[in-house]
Batch of 2 targets.
Target 1
Amino acid sequence: MRILALDLGTSLGYAYGDLPTGAVLRAGTVKLATAKEITEAHKTRMNRRLDPRLPALFNWLTSFNVLDGIDWVVFEDVEFSSFTQQTQLWSSFRAAVWVFAAQNRVDVECINVKALKKFGGGHGSSDKARMADRLCAQYKDFSRAVSGVMFQGKVLNDDAVDAVHLLKWAQTILKNTTK
C-alpha cells in the first residue's frame, strides 16, 4: 500500500512511503506558486476565480500518481484560520485533494493539527523545533542539521517534517486497522 502524506499549503510538504515496510521512500517540498504568481493572481482577481495553486496541486498529484502510484492520501486537517481568504484557500486545497482522490480511486484520510502534534511531538502544542527533534530521535533515517532535518542527503523544511509525521501516523493507523 503506497501512502502520500501532504502538509497542504503554498509550500506543499510531502512524504511518500509504503505500509508493509513502514519506510519513507521520499520526502520534500514543492512550491505550488511563487510570490510573484500569487501577487499577479491578486491583481487580476484570479485568486477569486481560480487561484494558481489549486491546478498546480491537482496537476502535481496527478503526475505523482502516474509515476509512482498512490493508494492513500493523508493530510493535516487545519481547523483554524486568521482570515477569510486563508479559510477559502485551505478549503480549496482540501477540495483539490478530494477531487483527485475521487477521480483516481484513492482513499483519503486526515488528522487534526493537535492530534498530529501529539503523535509527532509528544503533546498537542508541540512547536516546529520539537517536531523536528522528535523525528530525528525516533527514526534513524533522519538527522538534525543547522538548517533543518536531513533525509537522503537533502534538508527538509518544517512542511516536509510535518508530512513525514503524517506518513508515520498513517502507517501506524493503517497497520493497526488492516490486521
Note: The chain has a mean pLDDT of 92.
Target 2
Amino acid sequence: MNWARRRGGASRTAALHTATGVVTSSPVPAEQGSLGPGVVIDEVNRRLFAFRLFGGAQVAVLSYDLVLLGVAPLNSCTNVVVSPHTGRLYVGRWTDYLGGGGAFYFQALDAITYASLTPNVTVGGSKDNNCAFLAVLTAPGAPRDLAAAVAGSSVTVSWTNVGGASDFVLAAGSAPGRTDLSAVIGAEPFAGFTGVPPGTYYVRVRGVNEAGGGRTSAEMKVVVP
C-alpha cells in the first residue's frame, strides 16, 4: 500500500500509550464563580451538565438536544470535569465538618452510572472566598464523523476532533482491523493523499496529545476505483 501525502501537518514522533486521567487542584477566586463553570460538555456520552446556584445548588444532566435526564443537589462549591478519553467525571468540592472547618476533596465517577470509582481524596485548603478548581490531563477521545472523498486516485479523509488532540495518527489496511499503513499527520482534522492504488481500504484515526494516544475512531471503508 503506497499512499503519498498531499496535505496535512508535518510528520512527528508520537507517544501512543493509553493515558489515564490525572487530577490537579488550585484555588479559584470567588469572583470567578463559586459553583464552577455554568455548563460542562460530555463529548463521550453526548450529555451536558448545567449548574445553578440560586434556588438551591443543583446540577442538571441533559442530552445534546436538551432533554432533561436528571437533576442532583450539590454543595455550593463544586466543580466537574469530564475526561474525553474515558467519559469519567472528576468532581472537586468542599465539605463542611460538624463542629466547624472543612476540606476540599476529589473523587472519580463512572461515566454512565455516576457511581464513585475511588475513595474521596482530601486535600488541604480554606473555603474562605475560594473554591476548588479541577484540571484533568488525559489523552483525547475517539475522533467522530470520519468521512472520505475519492476523486480518481486522490483521497481526502476528514473527521471531528474530540478532546483536544494536538496530532492525529491515521491507519489504513486492506482488510477490516488490519494496518498496512500508519502515519502521524499533524493537528488538522483532515488529510489528503494522492497516487492511491485501486482497491478497498479500511481506515481509522486516533488523536494524540502530551498525555498519550487516544481511542480509535470507528473504522471506515474507502473504495478507490
Note: The chain has a mean pLDDT of 78.
